[in-house]
Specification:
heterodimer; A: mainly alpha; B: 327 residues; alpha/beta; Rossmann fold; Alpha-Beta Plaits; six-stranded mixed sheet; 12 helices; 33% helix; elongated; binds adenosine-5'-diphosphate; binds magnesium ion
Chain lengths: 312, 327
């Protein structure tokens, strides 16, 4: 346990020797068992009321709209969208969009996962501690006292919640735009089998969860960076910079021995959910890698934050 | 006090420190840059006092407060707050302490009320069922009831300072730590904060108030400690500190030259003539005799009296320098 969180000696109201006649002012009430949830609720409310958060979600919601409109325009003369460009090395979901609006969900996720989604996470995670530190609010949370470990855990939980929210915003926007602009109905998996629209929706939800889980690693990395500096801007820029660097390094063939350890390496494996049967290998590798990043950088963030001098 | 049970053996001078709300021993902080900000501080703040922590800018007041609140780790030495060691006992101590450290810090995009709701939610001992009432009461207490719904970024500096104070008053506290609470306020705002401090102190809350303003400490504090360049120069009751520096004898007269001669004759030192005012360090003998001697020498005395020493005199006497020196 950290120095800041170790509970002190019991506050001895019960000690027999000195019965206090007057009830002491400021005698602390024992914290309720659900207190941490109250802190989490406050953290969520605070995060989702920042206009920066809302702007990021707005950008993410706009991506499916733009992709949908582009596909609509390009296919308005009946020609299919040219072979599988869309999501970088991602699968050719985009060529299917005009046949079935549901494919806009997969296309939009493939388009946002390499950069927009993780950038949004990097901004929110990088700002988590460093932003409070540069605003000075961190010292007041700590003397409240929120407790350093608990505050860090609450921050991480909130960033994870934001990962989920960001992914769902892309999915919901894509679903709505897809249903509005294109026909919907049964769909063909990558393996060529036919599944119903309802099952397709189920797969889309599963993919959303996988994509959100793919962001857990960069969330932990961003949180760690956030404990290193007292400037929210610096932490956000560093995290996003790391993201871009890793994405570039992941393209360099000479580094293929290292690449399986890059947090982004298996990101596009979510497409394997659309195979029949689902091809789990890379999905599992991805989730394992994210868990590893969460453990390593989560511990590092904890070690740093619980021993750090808070001077801002 | 009841809560010292575990620690008697660590405390040889139990009697003195028994009613101490803050007690530090050899508390020292050297920042990572190498700056020695606080150097071997032995501070004792008695319960129920309004304790002025006085020192010029850069003398280590905020650094001391950060250590007391568990925000930074002392380089050496120890600190006890409400009888418990800090920062080890943060969880037990801090809910009973309200603090304003180095000015207020707020979420600009939240209303004043929502700022307080957030800080209250961070306190594990705060009852969520009474949160709204307590926030409203705290806003009311600092005169922000009407502005509670406004975004904090639209607040003036004085309003921010008040909101910071309100955050310190969300729960009944045993100790209030206020780091330069009147910084940036206009004279009216300063008066209001001071009367609030007096009011809180009369409820029995111990107030630890840092300031670089001598007259502020003189006006509101019962006790004071004086810091300079990270060191504690003196501490004690304000009356005793001021008494430590002797007052000056002041004679008002149109015959200033003659008066100065007589005063010297009577054994007064450091005689200074300034227009019709003659001041001097009073001699040991009965001042009635001195006055009689003046009259006998046909000096026309308009005024004769002792001017009480101020804390500033005490400070100058102690440090041998003016008060505006930054460390
Ligand atoms: N975070 C920090 N890092 C390095 N030096 C610091 C830091 N904070 C304060 N100092 C230095 O420590 C000394 C005491 O500062 P401080 O405690 O803020 O004084 P005060 O509150 O009395 O004005 C000053 O010389 C200041 O420059
Ligand atoms: Mg200061």
């Amino acid at each position: 346990m950290s120095r800041a969180d170790v509970r002190g000696e019991p506050v001895g109201e019960s000690e027999g020797a000195a019965p206090s006649a007057v009830p002491e002012p400021g005698t602390a009430r024992a914290p309720g068992p659900l207190w941490s949830l109250g802190l989490l609720r406050s953290e969520l409310l605070t995060t989702f009321r920042r206009w920066r958060t809302l702007a990021l979600l707005g950008v993410l919601a706009a991506v499916p709209v733009l992709v949908g409109i582009a596909v609509k325009i390009e296919t308005s003369d009946g020609s299919p969208v040219g072979g599988g460009g869309g999501g970088g090395q991602g699968p050719a979901f985009i060529s299917q969009v005009s046949n079935n609006g549901l494919f806009l969900v997969f296309t939009a996720l493939a388009a946002t996962l390499p950069f927009f989604l993780p950038m949004a996470i990097g901004v929110v995670a990088g700002d988590a501690i460093a932003g409070e530190s540069s605003a000075g609010t961190l010292r007041y949370l700590l003397v409240a006292p929120a407790g350093r470990s608990r505050l860090l855990l609450t921050k991480y939980a909130t960033v994870i919640a934001f990962c989920l929210a960001a992914t769902l915003v892309v999915v919901v926007s894509a679903l709505a735009v897809g249903a509005l602009l294109f026909p919907v109905g049964d769909l063909i998996t990558i393996s060529g089998t036919r599944i119903t629209y309802a099952e397709g929706l189920g797969r889309a939800l599963l993919i959303a969860l996988v994509v959100a889980a793919s962001l857990v690693g960069i969330a932990a990395l961003g949180l760690f960076v956030s404990t290193l500096t007292g400037s929210g801007i610096a932490a956000m820029a560093t995290t996003v910079g790391l993201l871009i660097t890793v994405q570039i390094l992941d393209q360099i063939p000479q580094l293929d021995a290292l690449q399986p350890y890059f947090f982004s390496h298996y990101w596009l494996s979510f497409a394997d959910v659309m195979r029949e049967p689902v091809y789990w290998d890379d999905l599992v590798k991805n989730l394992g890698l994210q868990a590893l990043y969460a453990a390593v950088f989560g511990s590092a963030a904890w070690a740093r934050f619980t021993t750090k001098d808070i001077t801002a | 006090m009841a809560e010292v049970s575990v620690t008697e053996q660590e405390r040889p001078d139990r009697d003195r420190a028994d009613d101490a709300v803050i007690a530090t021993r050899g508390l020292t902080k050297r920042y990572r840059g190498g700056q020695l900000a606080v150097d071997g501080l032995d501070l004792t703040v008695p319960a129920g006092s309004v304790f002025g922590f006085l020192g010029p800018n850069g003398s280590g007041k905020t650094t001391t407060i950060r250590m007391l609140m568990g925000l930074i780790e002392p380089t050496s030495g120890s600190a006890r707050v409400l009888g418990l060691p800090m920062p080890r006992a943060s969880r037990a101590v801090l809910p009973r302490v309200g603090a304003l450290i180095e000015g207020p810090a707020l979420y600009g995009f939240l209303s004043g009320r929502d700022n307080l709701l957030r800080y209250d939610a961070a306190d594990p001992t705060a009852d969520p069922r009474t949160r709204r009432e307590r926030v409203a009461a705290a806003l009311d207490r600092v005169g922000l009831a009407a502005a509670g719904g406004k975004k904090a970024k639209a607040y003036s500096l004085g309003m921010k300072q008040r909101l910071g104070l309100a955050a310190a008053l969300l729960q009944p506290r045993r100790l209030l730590v206020l780091d330069e609470p009147t910084n940036g306020l206009d004279p009216q705002g300063m008066r209001e904060i001071r009367s609030l401090v007096r009011e809180l102190a009369s409820d029995g809350t111990t107030v630890f108030l840092s300031s670089h303003l001598l007259d502020e400490i003189e006006q509101v504090c019962t006790h004071a400690a004086v810091m300079a360049q990270g060191r504690l120069i003196t501490q004690g009751a304000v009356a005793d500190l001021a008494a430590g520096a002797r007052g000056r004898l002041v004679v008002t007269t149109p015959d200033a030259g003659e008066a100065a001669r007589v005063l010297k004759e009577q054994g007064a030192a450091d005689v200074v003539v300034d227009g019709d005012r003659v001041t001097a360090e009073p001699p040991e003998r009965d001042l009635a005799e001195v006055n009689a001697a003046l009259v006998a020498a046909r000096v026309r005395v308009r005024g004769f009296g002792l001017e009480r020493a101020s804390l500033e005199d005490a400070f100058v006497a102690l440090t041998g320098e003016g008060f505006d020196v930054a460390g």
